[in-house]
Amino acid sequence: MASVKFINIAKSVFFKLEQYDFTKKFLIYSLITRKQNWKNKNLPKTLTGALPNYAHFYTPSLKDSKGVQLKNLFSKLDINISKDNFIFTIDEFKTVNYKYRIADNLSIDYSKVLNTSINELKEQFNDFDDYSLNQMSTLEAIEILIDRIVQKLNASGRTDRQELIDYFENIKTDKVKTFKEALQRILFFNQLLWQTGHNLNGFGRLDYVLDEIYNRDDITKDEALGLIKQFLKSAHSYYEYKSNSLIGDTGQIIVLGGLNGENDYFSNDLTYLFLKAVKDLNQPDPKLILRYSKETPKDLLSLAIETMATGVGSPLISNDEMVIPNLINFGYNAQDAYNYVVSACWEPAPVGKGLELNNVDSFVFIVPLNQLLDSEDLSQFSNFDEFLSSYKNYLIKYTNNLLDEINSQNWEMDPLLSLFIDDCNQNHLDFSEGGAIYNNYGLTSVSLSNTINSLYNVKKLVFDDKKYTLKELNDARKNNFNDEFILDDLKSQIKFGMDNDEILNLTNEVTEFVSEVFKSRNNKFGDKFKFGLSAPSYISKSNVDASLDGRKNAEPFNVHISLEENNDYTELMRFASKLDYSKHRFNGNVVDFMVSPDFIKKNFEKFTDFIKLSLDMGVFQMQLNVVDSKTLIDAQQNPDKFPNLIVRVWGFSTYFNDLPKDYQDVLIKRALEHEGKSN
Amino acid sequence: MKVRVTDIQHFSLHDGPGIRTTVFLKGCSISCPWCANPECISSKIQGDFGYDISLEKLEDEILKDEPYYETGGGVTFSGGEPLLQIKNLESLLKSLKLKNINICFETSLFVKKDYLNIANFYADEFIVDIKLLNKENAKNILNGNIDQYLDNLNSLDLNKTTFRIPVTEYSLNDEDLILELIKKYVPKKIEIFKLHNLAKKKYEILNKEFYYKEVSDVNLINFRDKLNEFVRTEIIEI
């Protein structure tokens, strides 16, 4: 608990100090990002861990152009050449300086990195406009770093140094030639993103991007598997440094498989090899997403489920049959829609084409409902429809305020990302200034489930059954539900997640309404807003008063699209498949459910059928927590016994031991409820 | 028309092929002391146990999971003894048949031949219990007439049938009789299982005595191996 609160406080202080005192800011920043002692959840140690390293801190002056800043930064980095494996080196004490929020949580299109060279990129920037000068400096900065790595490699004792030196020199002059070289080049550019202050850097569709090079290369499947494992280990390094708000929240997602056109499902050897590698390695990061369609080979889906059953926390499954049509209807070009990747959790967007900030903020559905209950004369509503329209009025106000606030944000100039985002180079306009093809902002939902349950309770208990007046319910809420009878009544009604027409219609009506409000607004680039029904911030945004679903003050919200109190998996899936994800509502819609490892193993074939049939029925995306309550409780009490226990939190997988206690508690509670052992 | 049920369970993976919806009908013709669903024995409503549901509502509930039946699943009527209410169920069975829903009955066979004949007409699958075969024990322990059971076996379509054997001291006692019976009536497959005590709480609520005596794994495996000589036999957990 302490550590999460601390981080939130530190972050808010950090943003306030942003405009003023750089040293203070950087110190706090270091506390947040270095995460030296998060595992011990010990604030004084964090402070003492950061202070001795203060001398190593460096960040370039904002007075220079962005490109020159990168040159300064890359000239000063400490480079670490590992004894074996790929080269992946981050200097954790040096980073960029910035005035505005850095746009991140994206995947770049690594095929661009593989099929070009620095020299070729430079040819685009012969003009002397600011954009060209900045891009030239950025490319020179990359060359400086390459030269420094080569120098270090030369001085290293690695027997394979010449091979690696060639790989790095080639970045300047050539496309990649081999599979191994491709993996090293991807890691290098990925490392640049981390080094320059970008968080949550996805890898995109690596099986697809590497397809041609793998086919051209003369390596066996076993050799490829070995290289992929090395790649995943390198990508797993600096795990804590890369973690965003919780350890494990790195956004390092590899997207596998996927429709390339109607009825044209792509998968190759690499799709299988990435899954196999993750299954064998049992490390929570990087994480996988399998893009599914009706055409997905059965053995590929089986391998994906076997991988999940190991408890490694991935892959998550994203249903192309649901995602792609919604992307196209929203306005993405069909080819771009088919080539979608996801942001740090699962929010879909075309790769390498935009400032698609899919996690720009959270939309907390319960806030306007509680505002209504706090401000209105509750005796005025003579039926539920009147109450619901009043909620809609509050939703409009809430949405407009939130979107205004988002629109007031500027983005930090970013020549590095602009290099690889279409069409910044053609437009000679930085990605932060609208140079990209797409510039849509995405929000994620929080507390939709709690809100629907609250609204339904009002309908049922106040207007249908007339058991309570609205004021009575609201008074109970304000007293944080000291009255157990009212609490029982609130909690025992039908709920979000159940296949019930009233609940479904209410949910679709509320999201449709928000979708319409979103439609009426544009962001600062003149592009659109979108949202999804998944709820990544169900704990961090839960500092909200009690709500009429029976949730007490500041209790965590419900998780994504879920239903724990019942073992009836098919009901939740039917519910999810009847939700409307169209218009502006496709920004991540994940069904989250718990299942014990034993259950999957004993019923593997039927379970695989169940997953496939659920997706074919219209489930948008799904993630599984393959754990049982007994193990979780044991692990909370005896962390040393379970150093490798992996769980999924919101959109990522991590070690259970690394989680703050409140997150552990939510998982245990859900597992117990799911197994029918609550109360 | 209504039938009396205790529960309708979606996503049942152990009551026949594929993913199924199991309807637990209330009321039984025998009373096994180890019954896992003791609330289904009496045909009367007992507190929270049991409610009447119209066939239309029951059909809606069964059809909710229709997309999941694609891989061989469907509906299983269990209980209790589902065939006791088969006359009331018949129009539903007709309607499900027209919709091509796979129908399974899990029956003890201690029922009138007329009832079995109706079930035979609609069933795609039978799960038939072999609890014990000794005539005296059948009378005393189960409160059933074993001759009725044996006679009904002759009317059963064995190509549709899975035998299910709860392994108890009684079934082990009757091992030879069971093996002989299997030789004569060869089913699709056999499932055997140990008793579990998950129903203990229900027995407490019902104020009934609960028979729970676990057989050893060695006995279970030996029994399986002997059965396996005649037909594929699996140990299952239910």
Q: How is this structure best described in words?
A:
The complex is a heterodimer of chains A (679) and B (238). Chain A has 679 residues and is α/β, with parallel strands linked by helices. Chain A has a domain at 1-57. Chain A contains 30 helices and 14 strands. Chain A has a five-stranded mixed beta sheet. Chain A has a three-stranded parallel beta sheet with strand order 8-9-10. In chain A, strands 2-3 form a two-stranded antiparallel sheet. In chain A, a hairpin with a 2-residue loop joins strand 2 (258-261) and strand 3. Chain B is 35% helix and 22% strand. The model of chain B has no long low-confidence stretch (mean pLDDT 95). Chain B has a single domain (2-166, 197-210), classed as TIM Barrel, CATH 3.20.20. Chain B has a nine-stranded mixed beta sheet. Chain B contains nine helices and nine strands. In chain B, strand 5, helix 3 and strand 6 form a beta-alpha-beta unit. Chain B has helices at 55-64, 86-98, 113-122, 135-142, 146-154, 169-173, 175-184, 200-206, 217-228; strands spanning 2-12, 20-25, 51-54, 74-78, 102-107, 125-129, 161-167, 189-194, 233-235. Chain B has 238 residues and is an alpha/beta fold. The chains are: A alpha/beta (679), B alpha/beta (238). Chain A binds chain B through residues 499, 567-571, 574, 602-603, 606-607, 609-610, 613, 616-617, and chain B through 9-11, 13, 18-19, 64-65, 67-68, 70-71, 237.
